[in-house]
Amino acid sequence: MFWDKKTLVPQEQLEFVVHEIEREVLAVQTRTESMRVRATLLIGASGLLTAAPDKWVSPWQAITLAIGIVAAGFGLSALMPKTIDLADVRMGLDARLRADPYSALLNIYDAVAFEMASAGKIAEKMAERLRLGYVFIVLSWISSAVILFLKSLSLI
């Protein structure tokens, strides 16, 4: 039942830890991919917004265009490749092969936890950029509506 008599950790507990690690890796991968999809949608919506006017109603529409370009910029920055701090597997490979199963598993868990912390920070930065991008695209829509409304009242 036990992998190592010195540690007295049940095999079921180690299997639970491995299962949780796999679940966390999948969750981070899913979240990152979801943010990439959102960034692509943000870029597409910004492109439609900035390309939509076939004729200029007012020079003030340049504000809407500029804000839309800023929103697309935030979407692009969220899509830029990021580097994840990876644990050096080669350095620990010999030690893991010589170690007892519990120590090897603990070492692998530490490496994966380190990588997941780095990936989580990158996902947070992506989320922050996307939130800013969506704020700017909403501001662009609002400014477009305000400009058209003021133009209809002949105020601009």
In brief, what are we looking at here?
This protein is an all-alpha fold.
User: What's the tally of helices?
Assistant: 4
* Classification by helices and strands: mainly alpha
In round numbers, the mean pLDDT is 80
Helix content: over 70%
Shape: rod-shaped
Order of helices and strands: HHHH
Strand content: under 5%
CA(first)-CA(last) distance: 80 Å
From the alpha-carbon coordinates, what is the Rg to the nearest angstrom? 25 Å
Low-pLDDT residue intervals, each spanning 5 or more residues: 1-5
Largest sheet: none
* Strand segment count: 0
Features of the shown structure:
single chain; 156 residues; mainly alpha; 4 helices; rod-shaped
Description:
It contains four helices and no strands. Helix 1 (11-51) runs parallel beside helix 4, helix 2 runs antiparallel to helix 4 and helix 3 packs antiparallel against helix 4 (101-152). The N and C termini lie far apart (80 Å). The protein has 156 residues and is an all-alpha fold. The radius of gyration is 25 Å and the shape is rod-shaped.
List the helices and strands and how they pair.
Layout: H1 11-51, H2 61-79, H3 89-98, H4 101-152
